[in-house]
Backbone:
């Protein structure tokens, strides 16, 4: 019997992955795959909650996401990688949980309120958008996951899953463990314009960006806003480029750039160029693996099918228990 604690997490395929996705989630997933029994899934049904009007890009994003996951270091031999829609048991459990979930629980969801404000250009007045926390709960508890790796801002998502699992258990008997939020360190990665790195802000450096694109974007990065001229001393600690140095440059380069920025011995352009070289060294092996998997689409498809088959086997076992508990196993 596998003694490892089972965890689950997922991502919506709404666009290419960027450095913020890597440091905010993937780096933690990679570290966890040796310690936990990990299930990581592509939440393509969740993508429909906000992008239902145009679904033409989802298939391509699903494939690219799997390639990116494999290229940064997730291993199908260490964790289960699968696509949500290939495990239809998620939808069945979602339906059954929706029967017992009070509407006020969904309406008070802080993400629901925030998204309604932020995405005013989209019609989100749908049952699917209101009820996505129920689908999220089904995603988690169908695998009886004990933990969900999240940042502090996502803890409410896990809490409503715990409430739904608790309500099911109270009504029908103990079937589901209540998953716990596993708080993970998520370094704050700002985009080119000093706002949060995001696809919607068009300020991201993507994992699949070519070296020329990476260089071009780095040159666009906003540095110390108080440093107006080349001979003005700068403050590295408020410079976004220096925060990237801390992640991608070696110790000597970091120390030299900090000192030379404060004394105005180095300009922002040269500082960006030095940082970019460290960033490109980090991306180089990722780009090589991306190219390998793009040239071997059948291998990518096989990994998806095998992972989804493994996930579905677990989901089917859970649904057998659920049907017995509700007494609809006739």
Residues:
């Amino acid at each position: 019997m596998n003694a490892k604690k089972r965890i689950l997490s997922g991502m919506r395929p709404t666009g290419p992955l960027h450095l913020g996705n890597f440091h905010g989630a993937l780096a933690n997933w990679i570290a966890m795959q040796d310690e936990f029994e990990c299930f990581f899934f592509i939440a393509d049904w969740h993508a429909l909650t906000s992008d239902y009007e145009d679904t033409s890009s989802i298939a391509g994003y699903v494939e690219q996401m799997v390639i990116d996951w494999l290229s940064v270091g997730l291993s199908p031999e260490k964790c289960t990688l699968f696509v949500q829609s290939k495990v239809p048991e998620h939808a069945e459990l979602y339906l059954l949980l929706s029967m017992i979930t009070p509407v006020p629980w969904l309406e008070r969801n802080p993400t629901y309120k925030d998204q309604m404000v932020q995405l005013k250009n989209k019609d989100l007045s749908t049952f699917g958008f209101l009820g996505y926390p129920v689908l999220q709960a089904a995603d988690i508890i169908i695998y009886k996951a004990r933990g969900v790796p999240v940042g502090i801002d996502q803890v409410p998502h896990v809490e409503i899953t715990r409430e739904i699992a608790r309500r099911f258990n109270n009504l029908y008997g103990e079937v589901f463990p209540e998953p716990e939020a596993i708080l993970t360190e998520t370094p704050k990665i700002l985009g080119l314009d000093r706002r949060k790195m995001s696809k919607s802000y068009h300020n991201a450096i993507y994992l699949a960006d070519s070296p020329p694109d990476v260089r071009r974007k780095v040159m666009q990065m906003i540095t110390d806003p108080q440093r107006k001229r080349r001979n003005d001393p700068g403050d590295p600690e408020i410079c976004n480029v220096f925060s990237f140095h801390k992640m991608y440059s070696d110790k000597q380069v970091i120390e030299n750039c900090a000192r030379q920025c404060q004394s105005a011995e180095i300009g922002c352009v040269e500082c960006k160029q030095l940082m970019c070289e460290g960033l490109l060294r980090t991306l180089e092996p990722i780009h090589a693996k991306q190219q390998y998997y793009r040239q071997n689409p059948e291998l990518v498809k096989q990994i998806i099918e095998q992972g989804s088959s493994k996930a579905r086997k677990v989901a089917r076992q859970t649904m057998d228990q659920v049907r017995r508990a509700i007494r609809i196993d006739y």
Q: What stands out?
A: The CA atoms of residues 58 and 258 lie 43 Å apart.
